[in-house]
Design brief:
Elements: E1 15-16, H1 18-25, H2 29-37, E2 44-46, E3 49-53, H3 54-81
Antiparallel strand pairs: 1-3, 2-3
Length: 86
Protein backbone atom coordinates (compact mmCIF):
# COMPACT_ATOMS: atom_id res chain seq x y z
CA UNK A 1 0.00 0.00 0.00
CA UNK A 2 2.82 2.38 0.85
CA UNK A 3 4.24 1.90 -2.65
CA UNK A 4 0.92 2.82 -4.26
CA UNK A 5 -0.02 -0.77 -5.09
CA UNK A 6 -3.60 -1.95 -4.80
CA UNK A 7 -4.45 -4.43 -2.05
CA UNK A 8 -7.34 -6.87 -2.08
CA UNK A 9 -8.63 -8.73 0.96
CA UNK A 10 -10.19 -12.11 0.24
CA UNK A 11 -11.90 -14.32 2.82
CA UNK A 12 -9.98 -17.56 3.36
CA UNK A 13 -12.98 -19.66 2.28
CA UNK A 14 -13.69 -17.60 -0.86
CA UNK A 15 -14.43 -19.66 -3.95
CA UNK A 16 -13.89 -18.78 -7.59
CA UNK A 17 -15.09 -20.13 -10.92
CA UNK A 18 -12.89 -22.17 -13.24
CA UNK A 19 -12.44 -19.13 -15.50
CA UNK A 20 -11.36 -16.92 -12.61
CA UNK A 21 -8.96 -19.59 -11.34
CA UNK A 22 -7.48 -20.04 -14.82
CA UNK A 23 -6.90 -16.29 -15.04
CA UNK A 24 -5.24 -16.25 -11.61
CA UNK A 25 -2.85 -19.03 -12.67
CA UNK A 26 -2.40 -17.60 -16.17
CA UNK A 27 -3.44 -20.88 -17.83
CA UNK A 28 -6.28 -21.82 -20.14
CA UNK A 29 -9.57 -22.94 -18.65
CA UNK A 30 -9.37 -26.39 -20.31
CA UNK A 31 -5.90 -26.89 -18.79
CA UNK A 32 -7.22 -25.85 -15.38
CA UNK A 33 -10.09 -28.34 -15.73
CA UNK A 34 -7.53 -31.08 -16.45
CA UNK A 35 -5.70 -30.10 -13.23
CA UNK A 36 -8.98 -30.35 -11.32
CA UNK A 37 -9.89 -33.72 -12.81
CA UNK A 38 -6.44 -35.13 -12.07
CA UNK A 39 -6.87 -33.97 -8.42
CA UNK A 40 -3.91 -31.57 -8.55
CA UNK A 41 -6.23 -28.85 -7.27
CA UNK A 42 -9.21 -29.56 -5.01
CA UNK A 43 -12.66 -28.34 -6.02
CA UNK A 44 -16.31 -28.93 -5.32
CA UNK A 45 -19.37 -29.06 -7.53
CA UNK A 46 -22.17 -26.56 -7.06
CA UNK A 47 -24.89 -27.92 -9.27
CA UNK A 48 -23.12 -28.51 -12.56
CA UNK A 49 -20.43 -25.89 -11.91
CA UNK A 50 -17.02 -26.32 -10.30
CA UNK A 51 -15.89 -24.01 -7.52
CA UNK A 52 -12.30 -23.78 -6.32
CA UNK A 53 -11.23 -22.35 -2.97
CA UNK A 54 -8.94 -19.35 -3.34
CA UNK A 55 -6.54 -20.90 -0.82
CA UNK A 56 -6.27 -24.09 -2.92
CA UNK A 57 -5.26 -21.98 -5.92
CA UNK A 58 -2.62 -20.18 -3.87
CA UNK A 59 -1.33 -23.52 -2.53
CA UNK A 60 -1.04 -24.94 -6.06
CA UNK A 61 0.68 -21.77 -7.26
CA UNK A 62 3.17 -21.93 -4.38
CA UNK A 63 3.93 -25.59 -5.09
CA UNK A 64 4.37 -24.86 -8.80
CA UNK A 65 6.82 -22.07 -8.00
CA UNK A 66 8.77 -24.37 -5.67
CA UNK A 67 8.93 -27.14 -8.32
CA UNK A 68 10.18 -24.64 -10.93
CA UNK A 69 12.87 -23.32 -8.61
CA UNK A 70 14.00 -26.85 -7.70
CA UNK A 71 14.22 -27.81 -11.39
CA UNK A 72 16.19 -24.66 -12.22
CA UNK A 73 18.61 -25.25 -9.34
CA UNK A 74 19.18 -28.80 -10.59
CA UNK A 75 19.85 -27.58 -14.15
CA UNK A 76 22.32 -24.99 -12.88
CA UNK A 77 24.09 -27.63 -10.80
CA UNK A 78 24.37 -29.97 -13.79
CA UNK A 79 25.64 -27.18 -16.03
CA UNK A 80 28.35 -26.31 -13.49
CA UNK A 81 29.40 -29.95 -13.15
CA UNK A 82 29.75 -30.21 -16.95
CA UNK A 83 31.63 -26.88 -17.18
CA UNK A 84 29.16 -25.47 -19.66
CA UNK A 85 30.20 -21.90 -18.93
CA UNK A 86 27.09 -20.85 -17.07
Amino acid sequence: MAGGNAVMLIPIEAEVTTQQAAEMLNVSRPYLVSLLESAEIAYRNVGRYRRIRHQDILDYQSGRTHRRKTAMDELVSQAQELNMGY
